[in-house]
């Protein structure tokens, strides 16, 4: 009987272990899933994630490859002939944690401040910005950025090239 209990326990533990999804790590100012901001291109993104994306154009500024089903978007400047990715936007269902442990869809504004300190952009009350990363709470229906309070859950993380200034 004891052997049977041990075998059953081993099966349950193995099943639970296999059901745990691997969480991606987004490194501030670097990237995620092998796409490096400031280095990887539109073609690299398409090669890695496929052609099932929506292209969104922001006038003369930038273009966005939106992979809504997986919760990732990649931005490049329209004026950049090399089409290098300058920003990666992450939303659910993408399962990601930053290098400092902020979990998309679980961590709060207070958690971000505890891990990263006060925001480097003092004039913003809508997002928390640090070198190579920013955190937001976005209305997922209207896509508007909400004003932040400490209890709000972070539902958007953006990784960007730290030396990026502007597309213009």
Describe the structure.
This protein has one domain. The protein contains 3 helices and 11 strands. The longest helix is centred in the N-terminal third of the chain and has 18 residues.
Which class do the helix and strand fractions yield?
alpha+beta
Report mean pLDDT, rounded to a whole number: 86
Computed over alpha carbons, the radius of gyration is 19 Å
Give the overall shape.
globular
The total beta strand count reads 11
Poorly predicted ranges: 4-20
Strand and helix order: HEEEHEEEEEHEEE
Number of helices: 3
User: How many separate structural domains?
Assistant: 1
Percent helix range? 10-25%
Strand order within the widest beta sheet: 4-5-6-7-11-10-9
> What fraction of the residues are assigned to beta strands by DSSP?
25-35%
Largest sheet: 7 strands, antiparallel
Distance between the termini: 73 Å
List keywords for this structure.
168 residues; alpha+beta; 7-stranded antiparallel sheet; two-stranded parallel ribbon; 20% helix
Précis, in short:
The chain is an alpha+beta fold and 168 residues long. The protein is built from 3 helices and 11 strands.
């Amino acid at each position: 009987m004891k052997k049977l209990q041990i075998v059953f326990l081993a099966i349950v533990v193995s099943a639970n272990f296999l059901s745990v999804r691997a969480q991606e790590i987004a490194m501030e100012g670097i990237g995620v899933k092998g796409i490096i901001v400031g280095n990887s291109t539109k073609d690299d993104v398409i090669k890695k994630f496929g052609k099932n994306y929506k292209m969104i154009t922001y006038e003369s500024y930038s273009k966005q490859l939106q992979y809504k089903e997986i919760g990732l978007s990649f931005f490049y400047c329209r004026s950049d002939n090399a089409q290098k990715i300058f920003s990666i936007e992450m939303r659910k269902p993408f399962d990601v944690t930053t290098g400092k442990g902020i979990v998309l869809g679980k961590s709060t504004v207070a958690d971000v401040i505890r891990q990263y300190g006060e925001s480097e952009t003092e004039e913003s009350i809508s997002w928390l910005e640090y070198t190579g990363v920013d955190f937001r709470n976005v209305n997922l229906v209207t896509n508007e950025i909400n004003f932040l309070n400490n209890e709000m859950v972070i539902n958007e993380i953006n990784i960007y090239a730290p030396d990026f200034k502007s597309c213009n």
